[in-house]
């Protein structure tokens, strides 16, 4: 298995929920984690636990994305892992969506993934190694009522990562995609910890363990896709 000790990892959407759980778990495994989110106060509190690097940033801003990678390389001198976890969602009938909300969902879920990948791929290719992990959703594989915007963004994010996997594999770079079902987080203004969620939702730590699994797989093993099922909490 791949040892994560001293590996340098960027995790986006790190201040809460899945991103926070991934950040804490990777730090526990000895990785040096760069936590990225828009909320500086929450990032600093998290960074106090991990002793990594906190970078307040908007993943959908091209200058911010380039800054995240440049600051990571300047601080640690290397970069091994990118976890594209930042995501937003909103659910409504299509005719009730306005263009600004549609753009916000695509900016974070798709453009944010694109910009961070664009910033790290040249570095990963040059060093002949690196691992990108995308946290998409099980709705990358299915559709549902009221899910036009979110579902379309997750289909697009999944296609982006799948295509990128084929581009970078010859250069020794891995791309893995994780598809969680319902997760007990603050997503879409939810409040974690409800009784129903405990029965029907994954925990953020379940997704974090899936990320650890794909990252620790031996170098010759490629895990392209990993689906997590909330009802059984199995993957």
TrEMBL record:
Gene3D superfamilies the UniProt entry points to: NAD(P)-binding Rossmann-like Domain
InterPro entries: NAD(P)-bd_dom_sf, SDR_fam
EC class name: oxidoreductase
EC number(s) stated in the UniProt entry for this protein: 1.-.-.-
Keyword Hydrolase belongs to the record: no
MF term (GO), any: oxidoreductase activity
Pfam family name, one: adh_short
This protein's UniProt keywords: Oxidoreductase
Oxidoreductase keyword on record: yes
Family to which the UniProt record says this protein belongs: Belongs to the short-chain dehydrogenases/reductases (SDR) family.
Protein name: SDR family oxidoreductase
Source organism: Hymenobacter endophyticus
